[in-house]
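Reviewer comment 2.1 asked that we show a complete input and output for one of the modelled complexes. We chose the calcium ion case, as it is the one discussed in the main text.
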Amino acid sequence: MLSTTELERPAMRPAAATKPYALIVEDEPALIELLRYNLVKEGYEVAIASDGEEALLTIEERQPDIVLLDWMLPKLAGIEVARRLRSKASTRNLPIIMLTARAEETDRIRGLDVGADDYMTKPFSMSELTARIRAVMRRIRPALAEDVVVVGDISIDRAAHRVTRNEVEIHLGPTEFRLLDYFIQHPGRVFSREQLLDAVWGSDVYVETRTVDVHIGRLRKALTKAGGEDPIRTVRSAGYALNAG
Ligand code: CA
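Response of the prediction step:
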């Protein structure tokens, strides 16, 4: 087990976890640069979208782990971007921090109403923003900060390569382990077979999407071997999700 101080250390990340990917949606070049600089320093891979429509397209191409979303944007307002992301199953749980020049309380409430996870009023300090990002990520993707992650009755220990359910050890093949590891980083989020192929097998490998079903089947069988409900949800015509517990 890790001590709390170890878990608080931002540089502490298990080797199995990939670099977190952040999308900055902002139209002020100076602020974009400042945000980019600070996120890269925090260990993020960063993409930029400078209007609301570009943001939605960028997210559709590859889903980020967190979105910093400006309110006042060309083409499509930030609040509308947030609303659309929340109305789609595949992006419903995507962490969003809204950035805005508006300080009115009603705007703050509107921002949180459409499902932003947090809200920052400009001008804000970068240290406050990075602290908020860490807090949101720790809440939503605990797997980025820890070796041992528990979702519902399932526990995965990356360092020891050990999985248990209700304290009963579960033996998984390497692909099933990576699949579960990926799901557990995003509990509740729905992934298409293509997204799972990219994340677990790698985008440079040619594997039929049917292969995903086979490995999901094996993972399900292993997880339910000692009884208990099937924790993996099949979402018709969309893909698979791990129930958030
Ligand atoms: Ca703006």
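Residues 146-242 form a domain with the Arc Repressor Mutant, subunit A fold (CATH 1.10.10.10). We note this here for comparison with the apo prediction described in Section 3.2.
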